[in-house]
């Protein structure tokens, strides 16, 4: 990322750089897979539906819940699901992720309206940090851990100290 921006734009980010940063996109997607903003998506059935190959009928008006957190950590869709592997979201590998197995912003017509804005804002902030700093956990601090109570994810109690080392322009 640093080399791309320095070569093309004298060290300044632009929209095109962000759009071409495939690994940055993969890192964000993998982060959203492991730590989705919402754990469950709920929809109300609008007409009776028989699940193919079963005798299960979902009645009109019934609420159907999709366990996003569980789907994102299911080995059927993501080998080694607990590992942070951004490469699974690179363009050449995305085809291996079944449709409906990646739902950080919801699905269908009620998908988050601000999805693209949120992704662009996150990529821009992350790219700016990566361009200017080398980030690592400060000495004496362990890997981050999260509480995953129903419907919300938050850092466990404690302090997270990040060490920032300024990257020198060459």
For the biggest β-sheet, the strand order reads 1-4
- What is the helix content? 25-40%
Poorly predicted ranges (pLDDT <50, ≥5 residues)?
none
**N-end to C-end Cα span:** 14 Å
The CATH class designation is Mainly Alpha
Q: Given the structure, what is the number of helices?
A: 5
The CATH superfamily appears as Cytochrome P450
SS class = alpha+beta
Beta-strand share of residues = 15-25%
The H/E string reads: HHHEEEEHHEEEE
Which term fits the overall shape?
Answer: elongated
CATH topology: Cytochrome p450
Largest sheet: 2 strands, antiparallel
Number of domains: 1
What layout of secondary structure does this protein have?
Elements: H1 2-9, H2 15-20, H3 22-34, E1 40-44, E2 49-50, E3 57-58, E4 63-67, H4 68-72, H5 115-132, E5 133-137, E6 146-147, E7 154-155, E8 162-166
Antiparallel strand pairs: 1-4, 2-3, 5-8, 6-7
Structure write-up:
The chain is an alpha+beta fold and about 170 residues long. The protein has a single domain (about 1-165), classed as Cytochrome P450 (Cytochrome p450, Orthogonal Bundle). Helix content is about 30%, strand content about 15%. The protein has five helices and eight strands. Strands 1-4 form a two-stranded antiparallel sheet. The protein has a two-stranded antiparallel sheet with strand order 2-3. The longest helix has 18 residues, at about 115-130. The model has no long low-confidence stretch (mean pLDDT about 85).
Could you name the key traits of this structure?
single chain; 170 residues; alpha+beta; Cytochrome p450; two-stranded antiparallel ribbon; 5 helices; Cyt_P450; heme binding
């Amino acid at each position: 990322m640093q080399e791309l921006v320095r070569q093309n734009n004298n060290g300044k980010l632009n929209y095109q750089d962000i759009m071409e940063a495939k690994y940055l996109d993969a890192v964000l997607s993998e982060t959203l897979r492991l730590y989705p903003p919402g754990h469950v998506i709920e929809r109300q059935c609008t007409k009776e539906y028989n699940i193919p190959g079963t005798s299960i009928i979902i009645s009109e008006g019934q609420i159907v819940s999709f366990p996003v957190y569980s789907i994102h950590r299911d080995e059927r869709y993501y080998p080694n699901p607990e590992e942070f592997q951004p490469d699974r979201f690179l363009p050449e590998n995305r085809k291996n992720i079944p449709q409906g197995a990646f739902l950080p912003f919801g699905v269908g017509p009620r998908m988050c309206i601000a999805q693209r804005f949120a992704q662009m804002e996150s990529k821009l902030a992350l790219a700016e940090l990566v361009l200017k700093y080398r980030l690592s956990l400060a000495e004496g601090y362990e890997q981050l851990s999260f509480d995953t109570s129903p419907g919300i994810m938050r850092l466990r109690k404690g302090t997270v100290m990040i060490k920032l080392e300024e990257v020198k322009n060459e």
